Amino acid sequence: MGKITKRVVDAAEGRANDYVIWDDELPGFGLRVFVSGKRSYVLQYRAAGRSRRYTIGLHGVWTPETARQEAKVLFGRIAKGDDPAEERQLDRKAITMKELCELYLADLEAGLILGKGGRPKKASTIVTDKGRIARHIIPLVGTRKVRDVTKVDVNRLLKDVMAGKTATVVKTKKLRGKAIVRGGVGTATRTIGLLGGIFTYAIDAGIIDTNPAHGIRKPKDNVRERRLIESEYRLLGQILDDARSDGKYALAAELGRVIALTGCRRSEVINLGRTEADTTASCLRLSDTKEGMSVRPIGLPVVEALEARMEATTGSYLFPGQGEDNAFGSFPKHWKKLVEDTPLADVTPHVLRHSFASIANDLGFTEVTIAALVGHAKGSVTGNYIHTLDTALIMAADTISGYIQGLLDGVEFKQTAYALDRDSRKAALARFLQKAAGNDSEPAGEEKRMAA
Questions:
Q1: What is each CA distance from 297 to 261, 391, 436, in whole angstroms?
Q2: pLDDT tens digit string along 313-358?
Q3: Which of 19, 83, 396, 411 has a C-alpha 20 to 30 A away from that of 72?
Q4: 46, 54, 387, 400, 447 from 32: Cα distances, Å
Q5: Which of 269, 247, 270 is nearest to 330 (CA)?
Q6: 262 in Cβ contact with 356 (< 8 Å)
Q7: Listed residue (178, 183, 99) closest to 135, CA to CA
Q8: Burial class (CB in 10 A: 0-12, 13-18, 19+), 145
Q9: What is the 3-state secondary structure (H, E, C) of the chain?
């Protein structure tokens, strides 16, 4: 047939079946003519013992000259061992970010994606992950092939979410329900963290080799610096006392007081079960927290408060809500009502938790002790076999919760740090040794002098 030129291409007409006109000057390069009359440039070659055909593209997009040049480049690659047809097939099978997210979510709901401590993610975390994927990740990079996403793309996604590019109002399943998606720094930081986890999932699945989210400089997330000062504790105590006498918000006031005295997370107290409050051992044995199972030391003021709740309730929860054996789910709304229109309107339950840790630090307790008291991962007591806690932790819990209770009750302390002076230590040691020896009477003689 000779060389494939524009004249040859223009003269080619459709027949009953597709056919190929081969070029004599460049063996393997041809023009495929379809029944419809459309024409495309093709390449025929052998790779791994098989005959393969590769379509360069349609005539019109490609000319005989540009298609010939592309064919020469491809033949050069084939000579080096490449297989263009196989590569294109793999590329077509390469999944998009949206498809990857769908695979990730399916495994997430099946409990196959592990979070902190190697545990499946919680239902609440799954809901949050779904929202970030649907409202930020898919709208911005959903159509991109996973293998094509670069660090530049991830950095652009970070900045777009920070700038509110994905901000919208989404209708929810609830009647007249809606979710306001704002974006911002905190959302962007957490979304990139989730995206990094999705890319790690893709690496484990053999889809990609490297994680483009690694090394991305994320803005510092919103660090909560708010804590209560002593005068604010006294004001809060007055607010809670007024609410307890009011009746409508009495349960919210009691629950808020327990959060203030323990430094627990809001959800840990709201969902506190009767069987989780071990007042005999002065601890909470929480079955499901952010860090998994957790044994949390509690001070005597908390023990007394929880024993009162046990007497006042009969169901599974110490802070029951409406309906049959439910937790007090209305607490967030009630708490907001308690503090609104007061100088403490910006105080959230998390501020109480942060303040508890800050008071503990003020009193001279170490970071490890404070971590054990509030249930941080680095100091959390997690063994479910633990029956008796370290006495030092119980004493720390007594001291901190007792100090905070005093503030809530309006006490103005003159000493703002827990001083381990020698006389106090001698007095405490004398009392302990007397009791250990079975003698509960007042110390006399030398012991009195030690305690003086």
A1: 11, 10, 23
A2: 988 999 998 878 889 999 999 999 999 999 999 999 999 999 999 9
A3: 19
A4: 18, 11, 80, 84, 108
A5: 270
A6: yes
A7: 183
A8: middle
A9: CCCCCHHHHHHCCCCCCCEEEECCCCCCEEEEECCCCCEEEEEEEEECCEEEEEEEEEECCECHHHHHHHHHHHHHHHHCCCCHHHHHHHHHHCCEHHHHHHHHHHHHHCCCCECHHHCECCHHHHHHHHHHHHHHHHHHHCCCEHHHCCHHHHHHHHHHHHCCCCCEEEECCCCCCEEEECCCHHHHHHHHHHHHHHHHHHHHCCCCCCCCCCCCCCCCCCCCCCCCCHHHHHHHHHHHHHHHHHCCCHHHHHHHHHHHHHCCCHHHHHCCEHHHEECCCCEEEEEEECCEEEEEECCHHHHHHHHHHHHHCCCCECCECCCCCCECCCHHHHHHHHHCCCCCCCCCHHHHHHHHHHHHHHCCCCHHHHHHHHCCCCCCECCCCCCCCCHHHHHHHHHHHHHHHHHHCCCCCCCCCCCCCHHHHHHHHHHHHHHHCCCCCCCCCHHHHHHC
Q: Which residues of the chain have pLDDT under 70?
A: 1, 92-93, 116-117, 170, 172-179, 221-224, 291, 377-389, 415-421, 440-452
Q: 290, 319, 449: which is closest to 377 by C-alpha?
A: 290
pLDDT digit string, tens, across residues 190-247: 999 999 999 999 998 888 889 999 999 888 765 567 899 999 999 999 999 999 887 8
The pLDDT of residue 451 is 38
What letter represents residue 177's amino acid? G
Encoded amino acid at 384, one letter: N
Q: Measuring CA to CA, which residue among 374, 226, 244, 356 is closest to residue 296?
A: 374
Does the model's pTM come out above 0.70? no
Sequence length of the chain is 452
How far apart CA 100 and CA 78 sit, in angstroms, is 31
- Structure confidence at residue 287 (pLDDT): 84
Residue 449 CB coordination number (10 Å): 11
Q: Classify residue 184 as left (phi > 0), alpha (psi -120 to 50) or beta.
A: left
